């Protein structure tokens, strides 16, 4: 029999092929796609409209639409303060050859040294530690500016107390020079400093480079001790760990 008495449309249903024939059309009159993305007649489905399905994904293996990547501005480089001496800027830029805005210890050594005097790497390391308070061995424009002005002040003190113009500060001259910086040093410590920083081994006087190093050590250790001497009585209690943290940066510079 060919009729379907219960069909809602009153028409007979089409004959079915039970041995692999095509399935009946769907409600829109088109054959449904099979599991391989093709319809029953071997035709690929039409591509989806731009934008794909909800959720940003597209069917049938189409790649998602690219999203615009926001532009990330590079971090601002450190800069010199307005009104900085052009000589300072020029010296810094000559050393900062990669334009990073920082110079390392060897570059700083070249910037500070001249035909008349040179700076050892140890003095340079102490200077960098003094003006950055870290061991990164990098210094930026603002720290370089402060360092430059401080060196000018130290140079003026050195020349003031080098009364015989020997190019060296002797023991009593060193005492007066440190006192002008605010540090009253006992004769015993004073002699130890001269013995330490007189590179000739004669314990008579120290040159400009070693005067800077000596002043940095005295200043650094004194400032650290004052942090523990809250009452400013000349004595303080500190642990072994605290003592090592104070002293080591000046020993291993």
Q: Layout of SSEs?
A:
Blueprint lengths: L85 H10 L7 E2 H8 L8 H12 L5 E2 L1 H21 L7 E2 H10 L6 H11 L7 E2 L1 H21 L11 H12 L2
Antiparallel strand pairs: 1-2, 3-4
Keywords: Calcium
GO molecular function: calcium ion binding
Organism: Picea sitchensis
Task: Offer a quick outline of the entry.
The protein has 253 residues and is mostly helical.
Structural features:
EF_Hand_1_Ca_BS, Recoverin, domain 1, 4 strands, calcium ion binding, EF-hand domain-containing protein, two-stranded antiparallel ribbon, 253 residues, CML48/49/50, EF_hand_dom, 3% strand, globular
Kindly describe this structure.
By secondary structure, the chain is mainly alpha-helical. It has a domain at 86-251: Recoverin, domain 1 (Orthogonal Bundle). 42% of the residues lie in helices and 3% in strands. The protein is built from 8 helices and 4 strands; from the N terminus they run αβααβαβααβαα. The chain has helices spanning 86-95, 105-112, 121-132, 141-161, 171-180, 187-197, 208-228, 240-251, and strands at 103-104, 138-139, 169-170, 205-206. The strands form 2 sheets. A two-stranded antiparallel sheet has the order 1-2. The longest helix is centred in the middle third of the chain and has 21 residues, at 141-161. Keywords: Calcium. Residues 1-71 are annotated as: Disordered.
